[in-house]
Design a protein that fits this description.
Blueprint (H helix, E strand, L loop, with lengths): L11 H9 L8 E4 L4 H9 L5 E4 L5 H10 L13
Parallel strand pairs: 1-2
Helix pairs in contact: 2-3
Amino acid sequence: MNFLRNHRSLPPDQVRALGRKLDGAVVSVGAFVDQPVETVAELLKDRTISAAQLCGHENASYIAALRSAAPRRPSTGPWLGA
């Protein structure tokens, strides 16, 4: 996987472990820079994160692919902005 080389970057398994410790009322947001659609989609689908903030070179086709791979769940609000 192509994770940022930053002290704040975590692989998905560590993100999942931290997410399990959060109170259910917490809205968790993952910030991603140029990550594969599948990486972001899996974290959304398994409810590790509630929303995705895209901070790289993601374009309209990337967002369309992400919305297709991880469709919005009813009653939980949008995962991505307009």
